[in-house]
Amino acid sequence: MIIPFVDHADGSLLPPADMEQLSRFGGASRAAQWAAWRRAVYAETGASAISYAETGAPLLIEPKKWKHIGVSHTDNVAAVIFSNLPGAVDIEDPARDFSRARSRFLSRLEEELPASGDPRFPAAIWCANETRYKLSGRRGIDLLRALHIVSG
User: Quick check: pTM over 0.85?
Assistant: First the structure.
């Protein structure tokens, strides 16, 4: 599910605990991102609340439909994956400038892949690695050493 953000972070469909948390956000954009994906999760899952694992992954409390979610957001949209098996998702603006971070997540072999000349390639590799990182449920994975894209 892809969720466009609204200009404001109205709390419709959010439980009181989330409304309280929403009120503590300093920036309107970040608040709108947070509220948008949470509204979508409550509407789709019927969960009573959302918590977080030690790794930062969102967890559903008393889900009525789906058992697992994965969440990602960027400047103007959020993505949520719903599943009865663990899942993950990551999205990025394809126009994002990855030049400063490139050396920390793109291996030499990935740089040599045929698709590496496409301007969207760094965003695609970032999203693939970030999704696998989230799915692993572990912190501190080195994207250059532990996760590799070998064809594409």
Answer: no
